[in-house]
Specification:
The protein is mainly alpha-helical and 323 residues long. It is 61% helix and 0% strand. α14 packs across α16.
Length: 323
């Protein structure tokens, strides 16, 4: 009799995502192959599986080689999210080499779209992307076009403030990618890491002026936690009650784990592990969180935003704190 092969939860998640990423699907960050690739990079590192790393490096090459100027520019599904992902790989040591050479064409496409578009909401995502590309780097070793584009983004944000109204609308429903706290995070990061510029200080003051509206009535508990963490306030008593006392959807549990891991790994360790236990409480056969419901139907979507890759990444990060 052949011995039954047993797979761990993460093996099931990885195998599911590898299979799906090999098929035709979108390349975007939130619901496509880029988000899946991010999970697989961390799976290869944290699980010490070189085969996962080899696979995801090939997948990343496929994603980058398939990009065209006609792809949407937004963060969740388009060029900005893919570019942020590539920059993240270099910053975290997953890839080595010249990041500016790898991202040269993509940077140029994003710049062209920005210059030809009057969509003010895109300024938020552009600011996040170029801040990620520039923070912690001397202007002497940055492409001049990158610096000029970032300054153009600052100019547009200061001249036309329609993006502030759009940003306020997102405060009522918890979303890890809610723009306002990430704007604050990147402004502070840029200033702390040496990018001193009058326009950046003006943007910081503008964001601080918006604080009463953004942090007032109507903000969801998850977004309030996100805002407190990026501002360095930590986990308040109200946030602890939110983390421990409410029932969260699986993808919300995953987002909370990722958020706490990034900003409050030590302070929030107990909350991270508690959320982890809740997240996998129904996963008796280690397959539910790999996308398969106990009744045999399909489970979650595949990507990072509300899917298996995000749940898998949250699990990996939480498990790293148990060791």
């Amino acid at each position: 009799m052949k011995k039954k092969i047993e797979f761990t939860r993460h093996q099931r998640i990885v195998h599911t995502l590898m299979l799906q990423a090999s098929c035709s699907m979108p390349d975007g960050f939130s619901m496509g192959r880029t988000g899946i690739a991010l999970y697989l990079y961390y799976a290869g590192r944290l699980l010490q599986e070189p085969n996962y790393t080899a696979y995801v490096k090939e997948l990343t090459e496929i994603i980058l080689s398939s990009l065209t100027q006609g792809v949407s520019v937004d963060f969740k599904n388009g060029l900005i999210g893919i570019g942020w992902f590539v920059e993240h790989l270099f910053r975290q040591g997953f890839e080595e080499g010249d990041r500016d050479e790898v991202l040269e064409s993509l940077d140029h496409w994003i710049k062209q779209t920005f210059e030809s578009s009057a969509n003010e909401l895109s300024c938020i995502e552009l600011f996040v992307y170029f801040s990620e590309r520039l923070s912690g780097r001397s202007s002497l070793n940055c492409p001049a076009e990158l610096l000029l584009t970032f300054e153009s983004v600052l100019d547009r944000m200061l001249e036309n403030r329609q993006w502030i109204e759009e940003m306020e609308k997102g405060k009522t429903q918890f979303d890890l990618l809610w723009a306002y706290p990430w704007m604050i995070y990147y402004v502070r990061r840029m200033l702390a890491e040496g990018y001193v510029h009058d326009k950046l200080y003006k943007l910081k003051k503008l964001l601080e002026t918006c604080m009463p509206n953004m942090n007032g009535a109507g903000i969801s508990s998850g977004n309030r936690l996100l805002l407190d963490l990026v501002r360095g306030i930590g986990i308040s008593s109200d946030s602890r009650q939110f983390l421990n006392g409410e029932s969260h959807l699986p993808y919300e549990q995953a987002w909370l784990i990722i958020l706490l891991y990034i900003f409050a790994r030590e302070e929030g360790r107990d909350e991270i592990l508690s959320l982890y236990e809740q997240l996998y409480a129904l996963d008796k056969g280690d397959s539910y969180c790999a996308g398969f419901r106990p009744d045999g139907g399909s489970g979650f979507s595949l990507g990072l935003y509300r899917g298996i890759a995000g749940i898998g990444l949250a699990g990996l990060l939480a498990e790293s704190l148990k060791e």
